[in-house]
Amino acid sequence: MSVNECQFSSSMVVSSMIGLLLSVYTTHVELQLELDNDYEALCDLNEGISCTKVFSSKYGKGFGIVHHILGEESIFNQPNGLFGIFFYALIALLCFVNDSNIARVQIYLCIVSNAMSLYLAYLLYFVLEDFCIVCVSTYVVNGINLYLSVKRYHALVAKECELERKMSDDKTKAKALCHMEDRAGFVNDSNIARVQIYLCIVSNAMSLYLAYLLYFVLEDFCIVCVSTYVVNGINLYLSVKRYHALVAKECELERKMSDDKTK
């Protein structure tokens, strides 16, 4: 990973974690409001600066859109903060996949989030006539993520172009050598490893959802459940490390093939 790419990825992970924490707090406040209508959050400073006023409005669930399309009782008509938890977790996880195509998807997701920020900011200022510190903070996070995602994409494209310039055209033979070195009978291919990462990302997203249900809805603690969440996290970390190791191995083999052809 190049220095610039590493900096952009790390900054984006930090920014997304801030967004995730804001979303967790938002979800917590919304759940408390359902239990107690008189609940006051820490971000309720006065009549004009109130988070609970926003979260308790019809726009606090499903962005004020889902209930019009799927109805009030739809499973998708959830607190906005819950959507934020999944979104920021996904953005952070994608930072560990060093692929320009994934980075491009990341940009599209950030564009959508900024479009939603504009929509929610309009509702906040013109419809609800309120100021929500937590809401505005998420808008700032979304803007930062969009900037960083674009910079990260360009860094990855530059890196991939440089690698392609150095690589040999004889990729088939290089991969054949790679498979010959596989003595354990496993599939040591970077493309398969990338699919493995995607599957692990999905499993971790499900872990977040189930953890939310476990803690906030069921208000319980399940050792077996939490253990599977930990396993999913470990698998994601290991799959990313394995992918990078395979890519490095393939690049090294291709470099050797290129040197042999030159000689």
TrEMBL record:
Cite the InterPro entries for this sequence: VKOR (IPR012932), VKOR_sf (IPR038354), VKORC1/VKORC1L1 (IPR042406)
Keyword Protein transport set for record: no
Q: Where in the cell is it found?
A: Endoplasmic reticulum membrane
Keyword Oxidoreductase in the entry? The reply is yes
According to its UniProt entry, this protein's organism is: Lutzomyia longipalpis
Membrane topology term: Multi-pass membrane protein
Q: Cite the SMART domains for this sequence.
A: VKc
Keyword annotations of the record = Disulfide bond, Endoplasmic reticulum, Membrane, Oxidoreductase, Quinone, Redox-active center, Transmembrane, Transmembrane helix
Cellular component, GO annotation = endoplasmic reticulum membrane
Q: Where are the transmembrane segments?
A: 12-29, 81-98, 197-218
For the Vitamin K epoxide reductase domain, which residue ranges apply? 5-153
Q: Tell me which Pfam families the record gives.
A: VKOR
Report the leader peptide range.
Answer: none
GO MF entries:
quinone binding; vitamin-K-epoxide reductase (warfarin-sensitive) activity
EC number assigned by the record: 1.17.4.4
- Major site of localization recorded for this protein: endoplasmic reticulum
Protein name (record): vitamin-K-epoxide reductase (warfarin-sensitive)
Choose any GO biological process term that the UniProt entry carries and state it.
vitamin K metabolic process
Q: Which family is it part of?
A: Belongs to the VKOR family.
